[in-house]
Design brief:
The complex is a heterodimer of chains A (about 110) and B (about 900). Chain A has about 110 residues and is an all-alpha fold. Helices cover about 70% and strands about 0% of the residues of chain A. Chain A is built from six helices and no strands. The termini of chain A are close together. Helix content of chain B is about 75%, strand content about 0%. Chain B is built from 49 helices and no strands. The longest helix of chain B has 30 residues, at about 260-290. Chain B is elongated, with a radius of gyration of 48 Å. Classes of the chains: A mainly alpha (about 110), B mainly alpha (about 900). Chains A and B meet through α3 and α5 of A and α13, α16 and α17 of B.
Chain lengths: ~110, ~900
């Protein structure tokens, strides 16, 4: 699961790099994904919050919402998770992150 | 926009009016201002045409209306076409004249009259445009709804995509109207029709912000966030203004191209309009520079995240604002909001730091009172009650005008309540209620006032407070009505008014059938009926209490109270079935230890020891694999004690029942904990435990060990002098079972081991570490004594004596260890040269603790030595004689030595 997620993030970064649009958002997103996997949830939440607060028009929003929900699940939360998943489903319904979230997170109170 | 509309106006005149009118009549040059109704038709038409050509929109309106009246009745084609043209022009002229509602009406009636005409589509759009110019968003919205219903709206969409000034205005007006009513779906629908110029319209962006605000008001934070995210930042709009200004500047600077004289006026007007537009954009830019709303927007987004309880997102924005824009008007508020977010996130260190920094930066800030209250709450959350108390009292002393003094006082009451100082808590709750009766915490304070009185056993006063609350009209909806009613019952119980108490709990069940306290009310009723000997109603209530329990504790209480009734009634089979049902339902989540032991006891009461043992052995196998469960250990300990201490159960019977199971799971990693527990049990009951102990010691890691086998490993390792292994076991114990009963035993073993190895400093450090955790029970007494022993061995006699005295002061620790403590205190005195005092301590041992001959013998001997040092030889001999007179003491090593000494004395003295 962990490798799969990091691989997914790296793959997307690669696509982004090809498009020549690399900025801080994907970098922070990768660091956030790593932090989630390593259980450094506070670090992850801060990074993801930054992506969302200052890169809300970027194509990384869906991924950031997915990881926010994942981090919140891991820290035993539910309100933020539900809200992030709602946002993901409402605004990025066709993204791969929305599908992944629907598969992995919708009914999970605590992941892994 | 106006410019293009005028071009359209002129073009329409050429296309329709000229064609239609030239066919109808010859031109007339009459200039007299005669009303249109009085003009002959030919003159009416000519004048209308002239007015249209000269763009006299307001003046031409009555002429057009008159044309429509006169020609509307004619059947000739030319007349019909002229009438159609007039109809269309009427709409355009009304639009030009600013009569938008009438213009929309003209276009709509045009569409109605000529639905198949090629201009009908444009007329629909113009009707929409006219309505869009109205300030009220409702007409345009209802017109669109009408078009949608008739299916005409889809035909208009290509027009909207044209991205001319006219369509842009319509789209901006539409989106703005929908945004201002927070119509999320329609804004989403029409926003894509806005090109970059439209998106840069300041009005549109402000409308989107309004839409977000309205969604926030409706607590629809997700939509609000969407609205805010669609708003272009002021900085983006400024860049757009610059782009448009540059383009316009180029246009204005270019020389005017040649046009026929008839178009020059229009050309000049167009240039003037461009110049005006330039000035307008410049003003917009200026406004954006002055009223940059970017921070406003960020604040709004942060508030949305706050509303959605996504505090990290909110916090990051607040922190960014006060860090990047410290001089901003939002900076102070953001520091406060970030403090609140961090508190809600339970990042208490960061919150405290943020709060302290705020107070430092804004000593008289707007949020000072809220921050100080928050800091007090943080201390409470951290359970730092003394610090919270001091902080709150300081606030009460130093800041009498504190905005939240009621809450500070209330919280102080809570602190005192938690510290069980009910008198102090009572005074504070009372003050909160009396001083701030209109505030939020007044009602809550009444409840806690009553609770304090309950704990102070001032039941009559508690009744008065609770009843006062229930009868009060002060609070419209009594938030604590259920709780207070329940506590009123408890207060009546305290007053021993049992009938009134029953009545209250019965009413409680009717009045609050879904309350969380229902189970407890039922149990109280069960207890009350049980106390009266009415066992059947008692059982019924316990049954109800179990059914409506919302916590495990509530269910357990009811289940075991009912079990007790069954036991009293001698209904052992019923008890077994009842508890078995509880175990089947709750499994490992229930109180399986007492349930199992009661079942076992019931079988024994029925004279069925085999079934009792079966039940215990089954429970051992069922719950024995739960890792880290100290409760599961108790089942094994009970079985061990049944064999080794209580009797009635043989080791063979236990081994026969469990050996096969143990062999079966040996090597199964998923059953490791059970295997280890069974091994520890077998070691405890077997005549030769070495095989089992070897197995436990042979385990490479201790991860799967529960306290019972862990203790056994520690003891066995200690016996072999394997200090490191003992330390390893102890470390694991401290990590996983810090609160377990066996911790002290484990420490005891380790301390003794270190002492035996002469590692006294380490032993002392460990002993003090354990004592610092505030241990309780007899095992704690042993640690205390061991600490004193180590200090004595380190020749720290005064500290050692103090520790022995500490041990002797605790009544609960008195027992077999007491004579040791007394004896060693005497030895310390001897070492310090206080001989007489030492003798007094020794005397206490042999006078008061004769049942411990090992220690009385030592005390007698030491006392005699002391008396000899003092030169009181006769007293020493008398002591030795007294010593050997007790046959138990005489048989000890010291006793035999005393006998020999006395014999030698006798030989010396004839």
């Amino acid at each position: 699961m962990r490798l799969k997620r990091v691989a997914a993030a790296v793959l997307l970064i690669a696509c982004f790099t090809e498009a020549g649009e690399l900025d801080d958002a994907p970098d922070e997103l990768v660091r956030a994904a790593e932090a989630v996997d390593q259980g450094r949830l506070k670090d992850a939440r801060v990074l993801l919050a930054r992506v969302q607060a200052f890169g809300y028009r970027s194509e990384w929003m869906a991924a950031a919402l997915y990881y926010e929900a994942l981090a919140d699940s891991k820290s035993g939360g539910s309100t933020a998770r539900v809200s992030a998943l709602d946002e993901l489903a409402a605004f990025y319904p066709d993204s791969s992150w929305a599908r992944r979230a629907a598969d992995e997170l919708k009914n999970v109170s605590s992941v892994e | 926009m106006i410019h293009l509309m005028k071009i359209r106006f002129r073009f329409s005149v050429c296309a329709f009016v000229l064609a239609g009118f030239s066919l109808l009549s010859a031109p007339s040059y009459a200039q007299d201002a005669i009303s249109p109704e009085e003009l002959p038709t030919s003159q009416l038409l000519r004048q209308t045409r002239e007015l249209l050509e000269n763009r006299k929109a307001t003046e031409v309106i009555p002429y057009l209306e008159e044309v429509m009246v006169r020609l509307g009745v004619l059947e000739e084609e030319n007349a019909k076409e002229a009438c159609l043209t007039a109809h269309y022009q009427l709409g355009l002229c009304r639009m030009e004249a600013g009569e938008y509602e009438a213009a929309a009406e003209a276009f709509r009636s045009f569409v109605q009259t000529y639905p198949g005409h090629e201009s009908a589509l444009e007329a629909r759009f113009l009707a929409m445009e006219a309505l869009a110019w109205l300030k009220d968003p409702e007409p345009v919205q209802s017109y669109i709804a009408e078009l949608e219903q008739s299916g005409e709206f889809d035909r208009l969409l290509p027009v909207l995509r044209e991205q001319t000034d006219a369509t842009r205005h319509v789209v901006i007006s539409l989106v703005s109207a929908y945004a201002q009513s927070a119509d999320f779906e329609n804004v989403q629908r029409f926003l894509p029709f806005c090109d970059e110029d439209a998106r840069s319209d300041i009005g549109l962006n402000l409308a989107l912000m309004d839409g977000g605000d309205l969604a926030v008001d409706n607590e629809d934070y997700r939509s609000a966030l969407w609205f805010y995210r669609e708003v272009r930042l002021s900085t983006e709009l400024i860049a757009s203004c610059d782009r448009r200004l540059a383009a316009l500047h180029e246009e204005i600077q270019a020389p005017l191209p040649w046009v026929p004289i008839s178009l020059r006026e229009a050309q000049a007007a167009q240039r003037a309009a461009e110049t005006n537009r330039y000035a307008q954009i410049e003003r917009e830019r200026e406004r954006l520079e002055i009223q940059n709303y970017d921070l406003d927007l960020m604040m709004r987004m942060a508030r949305c995240y706050d509303g959605m309880q996504r505090r990290w997102n909110a916090c990051v924005i607040y922190q960014h604002i006060y860090t990047a824009f410290p001089e901003s008007r939002f900076a102070e508020r953001c520091r406060y909001s970030a403090f609140q977010c961090l508190t809600a996130l339970e990042e208490l260190d960061d919150a405290e730091q943020a709060g302290d920094l705020y107070l430092e930066m804004y000593p008289a800030g707007r949020y000072r009172d809220a921050i100080t209250l928050g800091l007090m709450q943080i201390l409470l959350q951290r359970d730092h009650l003394p610090a919270a108390c001091e902080f709150g009292q300081e606030l009460r002393r130093q800041e009498p005008a504190h905005r939240y003094l009621d809450q500070v006082t209330y919280l102080l009451g809570y602190v005192q309540y938690a510290r069980q100082d009910y008198e102090a808590a009572l005074a504070l709750f009372r003050e909160t209620r009396e001083t701030w009766p209109e505030r939020l915490y007044a009602e809550e304070s009444v409840y806690w006032e009553g609770m304090c009185l309950l704990f102070l056993s001032r039941f009559d006063e508690a009744v008065a407070v609770f009843e006062g609350y229930l009868h009060s009209t002060e609070w419209q909806s009594k938030e604590f009505e259920a709780d207070v009613t329940f506590r009123l019952g408890m207060a009546r119980y305290g007053l021993e008014e049992y009938e009134a108490c029953k009545e209250i709990f019965r009413k409680f069940l009717v009045r609050f059938p879904d309350d969380e306290l229902c189970s407890e009310a039922c149990s109280m009723l069960g207890d009350l009926y049980g106390a009266d000997g009415e066992m059947e109603p008692a059982l019924r209530y316990y049954g109800r209490a179990r059914d409506c329990a919302v916590t495990a504790e509530q269910e357990s209480y009811a289940v075991f109270q009912a079990a007790q009734v069954f036991e009293l009634q001698g209904r052992h089979m019923k008890l077994i079935a009842w508890l078995q049902d509880y175990l089947d339902e709750r499994g490992a989540e229930g109180d399986f230890v007492p349930a199992t032991l009661r079942i076992s006891r019931a079988w024994r009461a029925l004279g069925k020891g085999e079934q009792a043992l079966d039940a215990e052995c089954a429970a051992v196998l069922r719950y024995g694999n739960i890792p880290d469960s100290e409760d599961a250990d108790l089942l094994f300990v009970d079985l061990r004690d049944a064999v080794t201490q209580r009797g009635g159960v043989s080791a063979g019977e236990v081994l026969r029942r469990l050996s096969a199971a143990r062999e079966k799971i040996a090597g199964d990693v998923t059953q490791k904990t059970l295997f280890l527990r069974l091994t520890a049990l077998f070691a405890g009951i077997s005549e030769d435990p070495s095989e089992y102990i070897e197995q436990l010691l042979g385990e490479k890691t201790l991860d799967a060990f529960s306290p019972l086998p862990l203790r056994l490993v520690a003891e066995a390792a200690a016996a072999r002098g394997e200090t490191d292994r003992v330390r390893q076991a102890l470390d694991l114990f401290l990590e996983k079972y810090a609160r377990a009963d066996g911790l002290l035993e484990m420490s005891d073993v380790q301390i003794r081991l270190l002492m035996a190895a002469g590692r006294l400093e380490e032993a002392l450090a460990l002993a003090e570490e354990v004592l610092a955790t505030g241990p309780e029970g007899t095992a704690a007494g042993r640690i205390c004594l061991l600490t004193a022993d180590v200090l004595r061995m380190l020749k720290l006699y005064e500290r050692s004596m103090a520790m022995y005295n500490k041990f002797l002061e605790v009544r609960a620790w008195r027992g077999p260890l007491t004579p040791q403590a007394l004896y060693w205190t005497g030895i310390c005195c001897l070492e310090l040269g206080n001989i007489e005092e030492a003798c007094a301590w020794f005397q206490r041992v042999y006078v008061l603790y004769g049942q411990y001959p090992e220690w009385t013998a030592r005390a007698y001997a030491a006392s005699a030595d002391g008396l000899n040092i003092l030169g009181r030889r006769d007293d020493a001999i008398r002591t030795l004689r007294e010593m050997v007179a007790d046959p138990n003491v005489a048989a000890t090593e010291e006793g035999l030595r005393a006998r020999a000494e006395l014999d030698a004395l006798q030989k010396e003295v004839p």
